[in-house]
Amino acid sequence: MFVLFFVVVVLLAHGYLWFRLVRRTTGPGRLRKALTWGVVALFAVLVATLVGSRMGLEGWAVWPGFVWLAVMFYLVVILVVLEVPRGVAAAVLRRRSESVPAPAVAEPPAVVPAGVGAAVEDEVGPADLAASGDVPASADVPASGDSSAALAMSRRLFLDRTTAAIAGVGALGTVGYGMAGALGDPVIEPVKVTLPKLDQRLAGLRFAVVSDIHLGPLTGIGHTERIVRMINGLEADVVAIVGDLVDGSVAQLGALARPLQHLESRYGAYFVTGNHEYFTAEGPGEWVEELAELGVRSLRNERVEIRHQGAVLDLAGVNDVGGAAAGESPDFAKALGGRDQSRSTVLLAHQPIQVKEAARHGVDLQLSGHTHGGQIAPFNLVVGLQQPVVSGLATVDGVQVYVTRGAGFWGPPVRVGAPPEITILELRG
């Protein structure tokens, strides 16, 4: 159903782009026909990309489609925003063209037969000359409104072409900027969180938090190596990978994950599943085993004790809500039940919305991802309708929750208004 809905939306978007960028900017002829087939081809490329990415096609085969998806999105957004000013400008031009009086049409000069005097010449009109055969009866004498209509048509065409040019430049510029951000180094976000009941011996404990790495057909091994290098440079006590690590099976992406074996931290690296780990037919189980071989422990509705300077912090992790369909629902009671309530607890949960259940179990801090911070503005406004926090630190139902924007991207290799992030989070008492 999601794929069908997405295809319908994309089809409507291409129809709108054809109307605005082709139909309204060209006349009938070869150019319009060529551009129309171009729009059809782009739609086909995008659909093939969406299907191919699920089938594990190589990155070079899906890059064009995903880049066009981003360009298409911003073309639609910019054109929709420009509808109002374009409409106002069109109305103003229409009024001006209507207020300009039609130019007088000069009658064709009379042709006087040789030998006819001046007096006779003054009395001969165009109709008489036509009847006499000196001027063809079919002579094209423009009607009084033709020049006004031509002027209005010229102004409309200029306005539509200007609108299309603005949208094209804006979309290409925005996508270019967004690709540079998505493919560049993640931003290091330092965050300090005060936990009221934190044992003071745990003050200063530091977590390197990363999520939504999204190893897949558009990322190379350099993407993983860079993230590992940047995390190691933070010298964190704990590394927390908060879901959506991969977009494929171990057979497809195992090589891209190998650099994770070089993660460095005092008390280890931990992982919880995100919704994308459940998208493959194999499920997350094979990745849990693969990560264990790489030295990353998965917390599947369980918790561990982090002992630091003689004090203990409970670190718990729950499955993503997407695991319910696979029989692996998040189980907060299993992960958090029977613990010492006097200890501070940090929970790893992929989606911020899970904080509502965390609050019922006395969690002090939840670390999440999933949202990408919106990834492509203005999607951040849409994400806010589904999740209680889009990015950053907030308090929900008495529980502090930090939502990282993620270090990778999903779909188009583009980030606008939400640069990739690795968080260094320090606990304070």
Describe the structure.
With 429 residues, the protein is an alpha/beta fold. The chain folds into two domains: 2-99 and 145-180, no CATH class; 186-428, Metallo-dependent phosphatases (Purple Acid Phosphatase, chain A, domain 2), CATH 3.60.21. The protein is elongated and about 90 Å long. It has a six-stranded mixed beta sheet with strand order 1-12-2-3-4-5. A six-stranded mixed beta sheet has the order 6-7-8-9-11-10. The two termini are 48 Å apart. Residues 111-144 have low confidence and may be disordered. It contains twelve helices and twelve strands. Its cofactor is a divalent metal cation. This is Calcineurin-like phosphoesterase domain-containing protein. The chain crosses the membrane at residues 6-22, 34-53, 65-85. One of its GO terms (molecular function) is UDP-2,3-diacylglucosamine hydrolase activity. Residues 205-373 form the Calcineurin-like phosphoesterase domain.
